[in-house]
Amino acid sequence: MIKMNIEIKKADDDDRIGLRAILKYSFDTLSSLDTLELDLYIDGQTRPCQWFVARSSQGHVIGCINASTRSNEGYINSLSVIEGFRGHGIGSMLVQEACEFLKTDGCNSVFLYVRPTNEGAQVFYEKLGFTNCGLTKSQTLEDVVMLRKMI
Ligand SMILES: CC(C)(COP(=O)(O)OP(=O)(O)OC[C@H]1O[C@@H](n2cnc3c(N)ncnc32)[C@H](O)[C@@H]1OP(=O)(O)O)[C@@H](O)C(=O)NCCC(=O)NCCS
Hints:
Number of helices: 4
Number of strands: 7
Radius of gyration: 15 Å
Order of helices and strands: EHHEEEHEHEE
Bound molecules: coenzyme A
């Protein structure tokens, strides 16, 4: 495995273009794009949230994750690592950073939702200690798998 020099940090204005590109690449959905149309730190439901990015040694955004809170519960979503950089622990570092942020923000559990067909992501999250809570409905009434972890 190639040793990579990766920085995990809160997104700032310099990351805007890279973050928008990675979201379009990974989740080519209107909601993801709307998120950034509104504001980098405000999600589609105008809930305060925080983006984190992984930056390569050349300064390129190669991964991202979004963390938000609702009633003292933490939520993470839009986790993505660019294909050529997967398998080097970057996704794990992004999840860890988001969970630490949520814990500091007063949360003691973190939830996330994954499409049932995305079995790889479910394996990934289970390896990080998340419990698979089974199927539920998303806000758009889509079937989604809910995973949860105490932090
Ligand atoms: C899921 C994703 C973020 C993982 O990122 P990554 O940087 O490759 O993950 P890591 O290198 O930290 O992997 C940690 C562990 O999970 C495992 N893992 C990661 N992706 C996996 C997959 N698709 N299937 C099975 N296991 C996987 C790794 O093998 C590793 O296991 P190990 O600790 O035993 O070596 C990345 O594959 C991705 O961006 N996928 C597309 C977007 C997506 O599905 N996002 C999540 C849903 S919102």
